[in-house]
Amino acid sequence: MSIAKKAKVDLNNELLAASQHGNLSEVKRLITAKADVAHQEKDHGVSPMMAAAVGGHKEVVHELLCNGAPWNALDRKGYCAGDYALRAGQSAVVDQIVNAGVSAELLFAQIDKNNRKAQGIASSDRVKVDSKEYINRNVRYTSGKLLDQSQDAVMMEWETPLMEAHAKILCPKENLDVLNIGFGMGIIDSALQKHKPKSHTIVEVHRGVLKKMREDGWDKKKGVTIVPGRWQDVMHELGQFDAIFFDTYGEYYDDMREFHSWLPRILRPGGTYSFFNGLCPDNIVFQGVMCQVVQIELAKFGIDAQFAECDINIGEKDWQGVNRKYFWSNTYYLPICKREVAKESKSGTGGQGSRSIAPTSSTDTEEKKT
């Protein structure tokens, strides 16, 4: 090893040690001396920020973040600095890292938006490419699952209690106009039907799913309207609704962000919106970050987003016959998003017109849904 390389290694190791002990002045000195704030030791992949997080050293974490340390770096076992702080009971540091993650995600989203605008790229162009693969795949219904030809699950029966909970918050009373984007196995739609909606609109793109819907008689149910096609292509045809649910497959968070931009036009004041919360489902810290991003972005549209903590029980046997999992936790954060009621329209909605990291307290990621 060259003398220069050894000196760099020594600096990085010293930064790791100083961060672990919360020695802020030494951390600052080492950063000035060009120690790498993103360094991860080779055996376990521990970074200076992970080391600082365990000890609850907020000032050191702040210094590292300000000098470019990634908030979402993972060690060899897949844990981030937020996980280190969470396991050590350092809640203040957890919040600090989550807040840094939220700021970063919002900034990157704006940069991406500006770049697309400068290049003349429509926000839905990428969806046309990415979702086309799923649309053209064969799907089959089997043993409480909807699988594509790669044995990836589009929807599974274990979601039933969650969908019933979603339907209950979406439809607190009967005679509402409801919209669902993405039929899948029809679990949410069956749950919504129990609440006797006035109208029930379902947007579905996959030809195999549409065939199953017709075989099961959904096109003949009273008040049900099936709209075939990509939601991006049919939004202008839809009216306004009291309750909206969003649960797509093979899309990205950017696509759901685009859908959210439609909510002021299609969700009535006082109405409720929800979605399958598969945001970063394999990491509680990352999910906390994305839930807060949703809260901030929906607030711009006058929609208040909260998340109710729900216990779920998913065992390994539930994943038998499935190529890969799409949910890992036994806690589900159910989105409850209410559109504010303007003062002049407080007379109510419904039946009129056209048919504890708790995220609330406290990377372009593809998921199973959204």
From TrEMBL:
Molecular-function GO term, any one: protein-arginine N-methyltransferase activity
SUPFAM superfamilies in alphabetical order: Ankyrin repeat, S-adenosyl-L-methionine-dependent methyltransferases
Pfam families listed in its UniProt record: Ank_2 (PF12796), Methyltransf_11 (PF08241)
Single GO biological process annotation from the record: methylation
Presence of the UniProt keyword Membrane in the record: no
Annotated keywords: ANK repeat, Cytoplasm, Methyltransferase, Nucleus, S-adenosyl-L-methionine, Transferase
Domain RMT2: from-to ranges: 127-370
Function: S-adenosyl-L-methionine-dependent protein-arginine N-methyltransferase that methylates the delta-nitrogen atom of arginine residues to form N5-methylarginine (type IV) in target proteins. Monomethylates ribosomal protein L12.
Subunit description: Monomer.
Protein name (database record): Protein arginine N-methyltransferase 2
Organism in which the protein naturally occurs: Amorphochlora amoebiformis
